[in-house]
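Hi support team,

I'm opening this ticket because the web form for multi-chain structure prediction keeps timing out on my end. I have pasted the exact lines I submitted so you can reproduce it. The total is 888 residues across two entries, so I didn't expect it to be a heavy job. Is there a limit I'm missing, or should I split the entries? Thanks in advance, R.K.
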Amino acid sequence: MEIITANIWYFVGSFVFIIIGVLVFLYIGKDEQVKELTTLVEKLKKSFNDLDEQAKLIVKTDLELNKAQEELDKRLNGLDALQNTSQLISTSLNENEIFAKLDQTFLMDIGFEKTLILQYDKNKALYDRSEIGFTPKEKAAILDHLRNDSELIKLLENGKTISSENSTKLQKDTIIRTFNVMHYIFNPIMTTDGMVGLIFVGNSAATSSITEGDEELISILATQIAQALDNARLFEEVYRSRQALESKVQSRTIELKSALDEVKNISKTKSEFISAVSHELRTPLTSIKGYASILMAGKLGEVPENVKLRLAKINTHSDNLVNLINELLDISRIESGRVEMKFNQCDISRMIENVHDLLTPQLKDKKINWVTDIAPDVPTLLLDSSHYERVFINLISNAIKFTPEDGTISISASLKDDMVTVCVSDTGIGISEQDIKRLFDEFYRVENKINQNVKGTGLGLALAKKIVEAHKGRIWITSEIGKGTTFHFTIPA
Amino acid sequence: MATFIGIGFSKDYDQHKAARDAAFYAKTNLAKDRIDFAIIFCTVHYDTKIIFPVINQVLGNTKTVGCSTAGIILSDSVQTRGISVLAYTSDEVKSGTGFFKDITPENTQEAGFNFAKNTVADFGRHARQLMFFMVNSHLKNPLLFLKSMQEVLGSVFPIVGAGSCDDFQFTKSYEIYQNQAIKNSATGLLLGGHVAVGIGGHHGWRPLGKPHIIHKTTGNIINTIDGKKAVSLYENYFEEESAELLSTKLGQTVIFYPLGIYSAESNEYLLRNATQILPDGSIVCQGAIPQGVKVHLMIGNKDSCKYAAEEAARDAKNNLGPKEAKLVLVISSMARLKLLGRNAYQEIKRVRNVFGEHVPIFGMYSNGEICPFKTRTSIHRPHLQNESIVVVALS
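Hello R.K., no limit was hit. The queue was backed up. Here is the completed structure from your submission:
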């Protein structure tokens, strides 16, 4: 029984021991699980906290982005408005038109609750040009304030921008009270003549503070307005000058026209006078020359030698006088249009040859070389041959007169653009620039030794010019002192 | 048997001209003598005493409802200044308007109930399809207002609501009824008859950071979160900028980061904006948040906004069924206007792409939106949301 009891106790003891062992084992295992779970919870907590730290960063970035976006949007809206205004006012050349375009729609678009654009009048008093957000009573109070706030105006006149960000406390308080805004910008409108007005913008909400972008925007706007005003003023000046100039030109044109009419009248009178006088002179001259010839021929009895000599002089001078009168008559006829040109097809080479034949004795006397170069494409020309021969005779005679012995006279003719250009060149003494200018004037003779010795009427070149022009051509001279002279003239082909 | 819609808009600075033009264009585009009702949305730049007599003169004694807004949504643009008028007339669609003024925290329940009753009374005995109403966003407990409306209209009846708002100053909003602007009121329109309605609403905001437990609430006031004063949640996330943001720009900043409550029913987060911070650090929200729920700080971006707009439009179109939309009403949160900025029209364009260019779009930006949000079941109960876009398609 004892053994049995002992065995029972042994078994019970063993069982209890095993149970305790199992319990201890289980306890140890659970504790590890709890520890694992606690670690996991800690990790999760840390992850959440990390997540929250990241969230803070995201919020911070998002706040910055939103702020930047808001500023960007505001600036873009302002720039849009500026661009539109710039296009509008840059095409305006009238001061009133410029301000009319800065209307309320535009002022709204630049993004401020209150905007006021003021300009100086002739008496340098500010008056409003455009505004939004102010009642007439507020506007009157503001203008009154600005008239008395010389310090503010002085700062603006010095080109300074004043905003709620850079004002003194006293200044800010006054402006906030007067303009009924919390944030504001004053920007002067500075033209080349200095300040001509100012722009005021403001927001009454405490949260709508002024940014650097706002200040830049208003500054650009003020510059644009100033430039537009400058342009308008310049245009006004140019316009007025042009008006004055046009008026002057008109009055001068009238004067010139009247002078021209007078000159034409005088010229006509002169031509008529010359024509009349020439006629009156030619008749007695013919008689003088006739009687001189009779006396010289001895038809009225033998005349002594010394008388003959005098009579020959009378004859020669009479001839000169007749030539002079004839040339004068021709000029006057051509000028007055009374001469009738008889145009027919002429071969200019032949005409030059004829003149050459006529003047060969003089050429030979001075041993002058004669060169002609007539281009083969020069066609026959529609000319009054008797008149044009005189042009050649006059020009070539002149050339002979002023070309020294063994010199050369060249005649060339070429065709270009339906116009034949003829050049008569010599290797003579040349003509000064001053003389060239007056060479075609009637009775003008260049003062040189040759002219002092050789008589001339001073009408040859004037007549040549009249004939060339009567054929719708042009005549001009090129010359180099000591080297020679070339007369150029054109004939329509 | 036809429905005619005319929309007019003007942003002229001249208040008379703006009011006259908006009303005149709406009437002209309607091309009908009779106007069943008109909806007016107006930014706060205009003096209501000047513009409404002018609108009334042009539209005659038309039933008008509307409210002030931060922005006007049109088919081809979003405008942050202006007056828009929608004139509507139909032989098929029945309409009734209602109004309740002087809403206070004390009479909110009674106000909601009477407002709905007034509207139903004006509507008459026809088949009801949609209640669209606008209420002042300063209403302390819009959910209570909604619940009492539902006592009249039914708890699953489609109700779309918008909180009137202003130019982000949160001080000037008003509601419009019969060409009068009245603060602290509700105004609305009940539509029915032969008209199909499709509604879609989404926000596109996503949770950010760890969840927080709403520890103690009093109605729509959150006293403590995670055992700390409620405002510490924002202080924690905004860090050094919190003092400035929470003191001066609360409304403008916090609307970007509402609190989100996960709703298993809709698989979406219900968003709640903080509208006020009380001296003891409690946060006042537009809608109530139950005690003990987990909330997240929420964040959205431009892409998520645009995507949500498209989803809302698709839902509205699908819910409309086989019928063609003749008008699309859009109520979008002012937070979205702020977030999208110059690109605000992009989300409206997404809506337009869904319905096609020929369907006129008319809408406003709101401070708080109510609509039946998508749920897993076929029952779509109206909820108060923030930061969301609500698209209503009418056949």
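A quick check on our side: Chain A is about 65% helix and 15% strand. Let us know if the file doesn't open in your viewer.
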